[in-house]
Every structure is written in C-alpha cells, then in structure tokens.
Amino acid sequence: MLSLSAAALPAVGFGHLPYANPAAPKGGAFVVATVGDFDDLNPFILRGTAPESVFRVWQPLFKPSDTDSVTAYAELARSVDVSGDGLTVKFHLNPRARFSDGVAVTAGDVVWTYRTLVSEGAPIYADLYGGVLSASAPDAETAVFRLRPGAGRGEILNLAEMYVLPEHFWKGRAFGAPLRDFPVGSGPYEVASVSFGDTITYRRVKNWWAADDPADVGFYNFDTVSEVFFHSDAVALQAFLAGQVDARIEPSAAVWATGYRVADARRGNLAMVAAPLGLPAGIHGFVMNTRRPVFADARVRRAMVLAFDFEWINRVILGGAERRETSYFAGSPMASAGLPSEAELRLLQPFRGRIPDGVFGALALPVTDGSGDNLPKLRQAYALLLSAGWRLKDWRLVDAKGDPLTFEILLADPKDEAIAFPYVADLRDLGVDAEIRMTDPSSYQRRLENYDFDMTVESVPATDYPDTEQADYWGCAAARRPGGYNYAGVCSPAIEAMIAAEIDAKNLADKTAAVHALDRLLLNGWYFVPWGAEAFENVAYWRDKAVMQPVPLQIGVDYDLWWAR
Q1: Kind of pairing, strands 29-35 and 224-230?
Q2: Strand 71-74 relative to strand 3-5: parallel, antiparallel, unpaired?
Q3: Which of 105, 100, 121 is nearest to 202 (CA)?
Q4: Would you state the pLDDT for residue 4?
Q5: CA–CA separation, 79 vs 69, rounded Å?
Q6: pTM of the prediction?
Q7: If 526 and its partner were Cys, which of 302, 471, 477, 559 is the partner (CB 3.0–4.6 Å)?
C-alpha cells in the first residue's frame, strides 16, 4: 500500500534507513560511464538531451525507498496531511531546507514547480499531476494541493516525489529551452564542470542542509561523481577494464561470463557482484506501435509474438539468465494468472463481444523447445496472418494491393541488436521483411518521444500498488500526447474502464481485481513481444576505488550508498 513516512522528524526514533551505512566515510571521487551524449541540463523538458544523473541536483518533497515501490520518506517536506476524503493534501516544508545558493526553499517554489512542469515541462508531467485541481501556498512552509474527485491515492505519491525547483533561478530564463547554465537545486550535489556530449562532474554540496536527516544519512558519500559518455557499450567496457571508470553495470550475460578476464581480476582487485532484483519487473521487450497500419490488427501483433523464439534466444544469447515475463505486472501480486475471478468477470462482462475472447480464459505465451526450430509457432503465426488478409506471393507476405508486410525495428543499444537478428531471421522465414535500424541515443530519444517508429525495444515499469500512472501507460489521452509512455498507442474503452476501476478502488481486493482485468486486456492485445526479466543486476567495480553497499530487493544498484576506498 502507498505509504509516506515522516522520517525527517526526530520523534520517529531512528537515525538512518536500514539499508544505509551511517559510518560510511565521506570523500574521494567516483567515475561511471553512460552510452549516449547530452546537450542540455534541464531534464524536465522534451527539447535537448539531459543526463539522467543531473536529477541529483534537486530533491523531492519525499524520497522514494530503495526497497519497495510505494514507500517514501520525508525529504524537503517534514510531514504531510491528507484530508479524510483524500482530496486535500498539505505538505509542510522543513524550515531548514536551502538551495545550494543559500536561498530558503519555500512553498512558493513548490507551487511554482508544479505549475511550470504542467504548463511548460514535458507532457508526462501533465499526466502525472492531472488529478490536481488547484495548488496554493498559504504560507512559506505549507503547500496545499486540492485534488479532483477520483484522482486516486497514487496522485499523492506523484506529488510527494516531485522534484522542487527554485523559482528565483528561472527568472529571466526560458524554462522550455535547453539549459546550458549550471542549475541550482537543494540536492546533495551541484554541477562542478561540464563538457557537453562528453563528461559531467558533480561536486558534493558543502554543509548540505539535509546531511543529518535520517533519510539521507549514509548516502552521497563521494566528494565528486563524474559521468563519462561513450558512443558504444563496447568502448565503455574497455574504458572500465583500463581503469578509467570505477564501476559498471553489465547488460550482457555473455559479456559478463567472458568479458572481464583481465589481469587485475586474478589479483583480486576486480569485484563482480550479482545484485538481487526483487521488485516488480513490469513488461520489457519489442513494442509494436499500433499507430502504424502494419500493427493495427491484433492478429498481426499476435503473429509477431509467436515468431519470437524466446527459449532459444535465452539459452544461446542471454546465457539462460532471464525468466520470461508473462504479465504487464511481472513480479507483483498484481500479475494475472489462470482463469479470471468472479470480481474480474464482473468488470469484463460488459465488454464481452468487443474484447478478445481470450480475456475470459487463461492465456499462455508461446513456448518452444529451445532448439532453434521454431517451425510449429511460425505455422501458427502464418495462419493468423492469412486470417488478417495477408497472402504469400514470391515467398513474401503481401496485402490485397500487393504491398509487402514490412516494418522497421528501431534500436539504439547493440545488445538489443543481438536479440533482434535471430528474430528478423525467423520473420523472414515467415515472409515478413523486418529491417533493423540502429541509431544514436539522442536520435532514438527524439523518435521515441514523437512515436516515430514501427517496432522498438522499451520497458513499462510496474509497482506494488498501481494507480493513476496506468493512464499514462495505456490511456487514450496518453496515446495522443507526445513524449509519454504509451509507446504502443493503446486506446480501448475496456482498458479505460479498468484503469478507472483500479484508480477508484476502495480497497486492495477491488484494486487487485481491476489490475488483473487490465493485465488480461493488455496481454490479449498483444502489444509487446515480451522478453525476460533478470533476477540479478550484474555490477563490476574496482575494489581499490569504491566499497559497495548492497540493498536487498532494490530496483538496481544505488551508487549513492557507496563510498570511496
């Protein structure tokens, strides 16, 4: 369930989060690598490309937990009050909060941030805060948000995790334009130096106002953190092996098995850790853009799923490291399984005849024997394509006008290309002409934001307690809005109804039934060709450079908990 903890209050009775080391020493430098480039320091807009790491400059009102997806701890806010009807939310700011330039953080900054993000920020912010009716600051330490009826409990967490920006810094600057000046924030780090497209270095803020707050003790231990940008992961790996980078998360199971055999490893300086991943995985894989005519028919999309030999790819390319995702809420109690419950059927029955019959049964993804012989599934896919109006001519599938079934797979990551190659080969055996298009990360991001692709590789995350964000992922409004997360262009009255039902649910049982029903609709819509989810995140680092602080059941490795050797 959604939980907000006033961890910044001394009365809570603990001095640090259980997964942080309060004795971690401060000091030293830390270098990580990223594939891509950047030309902007404003990550809140669509224009330009900002490094993900720049978010460390700002703070949210409440800080998300590393160990679950629905708990947050007091950060800029010291507490929050929610009215009995859930429609009025009052955040009480910590009076000690300061921006890095010494100016106090006020409720006016909170309200200005909300209004600016909604009106001038990336379109996703209008979705995230769409349940807000009004925002006000009755005094310097109180920010009040009034929510629309039916906004959902998730709206409160969305607001709580909003990064707060300094209004005074942006006066005279165009918020919607790429930022080249070093931003001011209240976070633990400030930008120290930038070489756009190459390197950005952050410096720990001296006398940071929140250094002793329980939610932050043991975090942010390096004096400087540098992020170096490379145009390929292979080059980034070589930079790490040469000692130019201190830590690296390895995305390839094959490279993890063989690519780190260097002399320093034998001397014991190279640490290789499989950090456990235990939070909801969501969905990941090839996503089909239903805005494109080639993928408008669900039978074609289902054929694409049948043509993907996950078992062979997992065995040969991924080293057997992944488990197949069989739900849009994989790794969560919200994942549907078996036959629909009575509660699910009550939600789905009004749409019978307008939604796939498979929604009312138990869906199973295609499974092969892993030998590489995918002919049985290709035959099923071929039958579906024939039923959708395609026919075979000169070993190619064509429509009634004779135009071939062809599409582009847009990629920016070479490891995805390794999975796409055998998939394309199987599609060609089927008579489908699929072409892989590799592009640089910046171009990829621009095309993704404008939904300018046929098929690509993307992820949609899940949480333990889905809420209003599901409209951002699967709602009709989000399908029409650029820069969002509805990559597939999903727009269905039944799905809209399930999203409304899960948002309006009065208890966990009703919430679960609605999300299960939503999951069944998405699965039977065949929007994704699901890949697998990793049980571990593989991280390598140099022992003489850093000490790793593990976090159980986290979403990835948290470098902010590490410290210098």
Answers
A1: parallel
A2: parallel
A3: 100
A4: 60
A5: 19
A6: 0.78
A7: 302
